[in-house]
Amino acid sequence: MTGGKKLNGEVLISGAKNSALPAMAASLLTRGKSVIRNVPHLRDIETFRLLLQHLGAKVKWTDTNTIEIDTSAVNCFDAPYDLVRTMRASVLVLGPLLAKYGKTKVSLPGGCAIGARPINFHLHGMEQLGGKIKLENGYVDATAGRLAGAHIAFDMPTVTGTENVLMASALAKGKTVIENAACEPEIGDLAGMLRQMGAKISGEGTERIEVTGRAKLKPLEWDVIPDRIETGTFLVAAAITGGEVTVRKCVPNHITALLNKLRESGANVTEGEDWITLKNGGGLKSVDIKTSPYPGFATDMQAQFMALMSLAEGVSVITETVFENRFMHVGELLRMGADITINGNTAVVRGVKSLKGAPVMATDLRASASLIIAGLAAKGDTLVQRIYHIDRGYEKIEKKFEGLGARIKRIS
Ligand code: EPZ
Predict the structure, then answer these.
(1) Distance of CA 45 to the CA centre of its chain
(2) Among 33, 83, 327, 344, which has the minimal tally of Cβ within 10 Å of its Cβ?
(3) CA of residue 3 to ligand 1 center, whole Å
(4) Is 63 exposed, middle or buried (0-12, 13-18, 19+ CB in 10 A)?
């Protein structure tokens, strides 16, 4: 891309990857045809489709963003290493398969670029619901009779851990209480799906969720929520280039923490029912951020915001509290002329006058978004390599940025 152009115009936000993935997993709780709408076309969705097909389900796109999943013929219950290692969200089949079929073998996901990312909380939750868990040869071997409701308290909020327990408890006998549950909007979306399938659920979006399971659940028919991280990514891109951008088909109150930080740094942010407009006449001020579980500042927005702060006026202290290694984008931003010092889980970002385009390497999904944002503002050309990382979580990202006036193209 060639940076330096203000972004102007409107962009439509796609459905949330991190809501579509649990929705696809939830279809395993029934035998029948489920329909999920507003599903973004992403690598991770394709990977999950392959996994469901490996289990014996039939999965097809029935229109641009609608997926139909027929689980009537599911006859295999293992999630192999070669699929799980490319996408750790595959672990979301653990709860549904154990609850529905009483057996599953899921490869341990292993670490990834941003951290070790164990799944001990998931496994402990399954055991409390009555699952027998054995770990051998890098696989979780889980068996159970009918699961029974339990009182589960997570040591710390875990998004997919909460999702696995929610799905398993929807078929468990009796009541399950989840304490210290994750409160992300995607949890609320999954709770809505499970309720529509027949489970009795209350408290989603708070730290205490109650579920009363059913012996059988109906197939799912659902529209997933808009992607709050894609929304934030485009707003930050508008802020860093000094333009005026409206994002449509989004949910403003899913990113309140980010909107407040953008306003604090001097951007003019207005919002409506399903749209947000950001206008930035230029010259943002540095602000500090500290990531934390929802409703705090999203860890998935940290890398993008750091790119913005690298051109802000002053010094910004960025603290990452959720993952232990989520500063992979710093090295590449430094190569573009940013002034950032890392000290443990804190990065001190001193604003510079300008960034310079450079060939850079994407390392993980959100780090690649951060490099694109930096490239859109940098003087000269930037080439982002390994953009398969970005295709995991953003639908047609270069087309959407082109639609806002960016000089960006994909070099296949
Ligand atoms: C989800 O990952 C998201 N992925 C991540 O988005 C997101 O960054 C993360 O939540 C935090 O918001 C999906 O929803 C598919 P966690 P998840 O369990 O569920 C530790 C993206 O960019 N932990 O909430 O894996 C863990 O190591 C991705 O789309 C345990 O120790 O995150 C981390 O430090 C990246 N043991 C913290 O908890 C466990 O059993 C929070 O992780 C589980 C988690």
Answers:
(1) 12
(2) 344
(3) 32
(4) exposed
